[in-house]
Amino acid sequence: MRVPLSWLREYVEVAPDASAEDILSSFVSVGFEEEDIHGFEISGPVVVGEVLEFVEEPQKNGKTIRWCQVDAGEDEPRGIVCGANNFAVGDRVVVTLPGSVLPGPFPIAARKTYGHVSDGMIASARELGLGDEHDGIIVLADWGVDAPSGTDAIALLGLDDVAVEVNVTPDRGYAFSLRGLAREYSHATGARFTDPADRDFVELQPGEGFGVQVDDARPLRGHQGATEFVARVVRNVDPTRPTPPWMVARLVLAGMRPLGILIDITNYVMLELGNPIHGYDLDKLQGGITVRRAESGETLTTLDGQQRTLHPEDLLITDESGPIGLAGVMGGSTTEMSDTTRNVLIEAATFDSVTIARTARRHHLPSEASKRFERGVDPLIPFAAARRVADLLVELAGGELTDEGGALYSEVTIAAVALPPTFVSGLVGVEYTDDEIVGALRTIGAEVSDDGDGWLVTPPSWRPDLTDKWTLAEEVARIHGLDRIPSVLPTPPSGRGYTPLQRGRRRVADALAAAGFVETPSFPFVSERDNAVHGSDTGEKVASVRLANAIDSQAAFLRRSLLPGLLHTAHRNESRGMTDLALFEAGLVFLPEHGISYGTDEVPPLGVLPSDETLAELNAAIPPQRRHLALLVTGNVTARQPGRGAEASGVAQVIDAVHVIATAAGAEIEVQQAQRPALHPGRAATLHVRTGESETVVIGYVGELHPDVARDADLPGRVSVLEIDLDLLLEHAGHRVMAASLSGYPAATQDVSLVVPQSIAAAEVRAALVRGAGELLEHARLVDDYRGDGIPEGTKSLSFALRFRAPDRTLTAAEASEAKMAGVAVAAQLWGATIRE
Fold first, then answer.
1. How far apart are CA 77 and CA 705, in angstroms?
2. Closest listed residue to residue 160, CA positions, set 25, 257, 250
3. E-assigned strands of 156-257?
4. How many Cβ atoms are within 10 Å of 443's Cβ, its own excluded?
5. In this predicted model, which residue has the larger pLDDT, 640 or 569?
6. 3-class secondary structure for 129-169?
7. 254: how many CB neighbours lie within 10 A of its CB?
8. Which of 43, 23, 25 is nearest to 160 (CA)?
9. Number of neighbouring beta carbons within 10 Å of residue 442
10. pLDDT at residue 596 greater than cutoff 90
11. Over 60: is that where the pLDDT of 741 sits?
12. How many CB atoms lie within 10 A of CB 383?
């Protein structure tokens, strides 16, 4: 909200020497966020001038200019070239003299143009920042202003005014008005505040004779669409009268465009009192006003020229011809005020905030009116707002106030809130006295009475956000200064912190980041095909959860795998030239069970604590969720450099990442060759965690993406991926991280080559060696897989490098050989392994 300071001073006493920065600081002290300071950005000599004479000179380009002699209050007239033709000899105009600077910035200097030296410029409203119109220069008589030549035009037109802008939060709709912000400035400084709406209610009555009714057969949330509706009639207005410069300047500083005296007055009162006002051309109305909901199939052409198909929830202003406006949002074109309007019907109302908010969003039609109605308008202000508009139409547009009008209103009841005496201090952490609490609440306009056990507080009508003791406590803290609240860090209760699973997830993520991978979270929404390709072991259609209100119709399912998100991220980076990628994501996947329907249409109401049964039903409506971890690498591991070519990434880098994950998780992961639909048939494996001496559980897979799948994702070259069930890995890893022990004794190394059938996985043979060799075996690593001459057909030779070490002595070669042969014996028993000769 922008607040012109000259306007603010009308309702609250502001120190004469207070700067815009000082006023912003005062607003900040009562909880507003400062945004900016706005002015007209005009400096230098800008004065009133009188046109003494001019000569019209046609130009070769078809344009006719006027060579003018202008009296600017100096000894000699100035010669000025002007392209406008809307003025005559004797008119007083605004002259910007050399040395002045107009908004832009646009410096003014004497310059030669059209064969003359133009010693200044005669200004238009747009050049001065007073509007967008550029139909000609400002003729002061047309603006209702008269002053002698040489008068400072900056002060005369209000161009020396500035506005401060503060950010208004959604719960403080009353602050979208000068009335509200002037009151807040009074709270901040203690200055005397004058309420512009404080008038005798009798003089605010609109009279009778104009029919007004509310026919809301389908109230939203049980609330009537309109609780107050005031109509007043002003006749014989002159819509061609100029808007006074002071009003134009204030509207522009407040961020609104001047649109003519009739509309400018309604906008001015809306900014002043916070109640949106709409004016109708009375002669275009047919019958009285009825406020009702829309019927199916009805349409309305709004003031922006758009024909809108109406929804049954839309609240309408109608006459006997049908809809003439979207209540609280925008009027209709059939009854709008124009240059031919002579009689005006003024509307001031209170509309249901939820209805207005939904209508504005449904029609993508935000407006200054809807912004205020959806936040809540003071229900006691419409009578004062309608009378204020009527008075200004009489004063500035020459209208005649009549006794014609109509009104509908309901009794305004505001529930009192019980406030215990110790609650505010206990909540805020500041010891407030009873007088401070009561004084703060009365300062904001609340009524406070003692009920014996504390206070009963009735909030003011313009504060619908004050609904409970917590919001009242916030007001006390705000009025007495948020700087009084001490900065105290809470002491966490003992025994709390991350769970073992949370600590494990963090260790894994930190380890991958340290290894050079970049975490890239993505949205959990994918296509059905993505779920079939990456979320299934077979590549066939699987059970997926479809969203009822998807953001993107092409991605309307909850993901079963993290890979689609990584592929989209990789494609986005590839398209921007980032080709060497190492990405990972940890997140939830959704794995519904076959034959079970998920979701619910029964959503508990807001503000009501759900029962245990309701919570159980909601939980049952959610599919099983597992936390997965996925990686993707593509491009080069190392870039090309002098003396060394680029090294392309591959499955090896992802398998290295498997070891990083295993170490961080405190588990040992085994890799076994396997097949998976989305992966290259010869470069894919499953990942296992051992749960016993001979039992393992599959936790995920690793491999190179099938070329067709990579091509469908618009990713060139090889793409290697990994996905594991992180929760399952951590569950079987236990709660401790394995740390390598350091021994002071040397290791004994030996190799062994075993011949086994080709169908036997190398991981199974390694596991047999480890199992048989016992505790002396420190490390076993596969170093070769040979298939060819010298071994029987259908077999392969697997070579392992073994490292043995004892914690308390130096091993002999015989002891190492004995342990190795014990491992070979187990491999022979389980898989028929023989030592290659």
1. 84
2. 250
3. 163-167, 208-209, 212-215, 226-235
4. 17
5. 569
6. CCCCCCCCECEHHHHCCCCCCCCEHHHHCCCCCCEEEEECC
7. 22
8. 43
9. 12
10. no
11. yes
12. 22
What stretch of H or E contains 724? strand 719-725
What is the pLDDT at residue 803?
93
Residues 160, 68: contact at Cβ < 8 Å? no
Quick check: helix, strand or coil at residue 534? helix
| Domains of the chain, first to last | 2-39+162-189 (3.30.56.10), 46-156 (2.40.50.140), 201-409 (3.50.40.10), 417-480 (3.30.56.10), 500-596+617-733 (3.30.930.10), 748-835 (3.30.70.380)
Q: Which two tokens stand for residue 431?
A: 């010891």
Residue at 686: amino acid letter: T
Do 798 and 748 form a contact (C-beta atoms < 8 A)? no
The DSSP annotation for 496-561 comes to -S--HHHHHHHHHHHHHHHTT-EE----SEE-HHHHHHHS-SSSS----PBPTT-SSTTS-EE-S-
Enumerate the β-bridge partners of residue 48.
94
Q: Tell me the DSSP string of 333-344.
A: GGG---TT--SE
The residues, ordered by sequence, that sit 6+ positions from 701 with a Cβ below 8 Å of its Cβ are 674, 676, 679, 684, 685, 686, 687, 722, 723, 724
pLDDT for 438 beyond 90: yes
Q: Tell me, what's the pLDDT at 694?
A: 65
CA distances from 732 to 316, 560, 612 (A): 63, 22, 32
Q: Can you tell me the distance from the alpha carbon of 671 to that of 766, in angstroms, rounded to the nearest whole number?
A: 11
- Of the pLDDT bands very low, low, confident and very high (cuts 50, 70, 90), residue 693 is low
756 versus 620: which is more confidently predicted? 756
**How large is the average pLDDT for residues 119-138?**
85
| Sign (positive or negative) of CA dihedral 496, 497, 501, 502 | positive
pLDDT score at 122: 92
The phi, psi pair for 89, rounded to 5°, reads -60, 135
Amino acid code (one letter) for 304: D
141 three-state secondary structure? helix
Helix ranges restricted to H, 67-144: none
Whether this model's pTM surpasses 0.70: no
Amino acid identity of residue 673, one-letter, is Q
Of 649, 767, 627, whose CA–CA distance to 700 is shortest?
A: 627
Cα–Cα distances in Å, from 577 out to 115, 569, 581, 629, 707? 56, 13, 11, 26, 21
Angle between helices 434-443 and 469-479 (to 10 degrees): 90
CA angle 691, 695, 699 (to 5 degrees): 60
Q: Which two tokens stand for residue 613?
A: 């049964």
So what's the pLDDT on residue 514? 95
Q: Which residues contact 338 (CB under 8 A, 6 or more apart)?
A: 239, 281
| CA angle in degrees (0–180, nearest 5) for 684-689-691 | 145
Q: How many helices (H) and strands (E) does the chain have?
A: 21, 42
Q: Which two tokens stand for residue 156?
A: 């005369």
Q: What is the pLDDT of residue 225?
A: 86
CB of 323 within 8 A of CB of 295? Answer: no
Structure tokens at 163: 């506005």
Judge whether 828 and 745 are in contact, CB under 8 Å. no
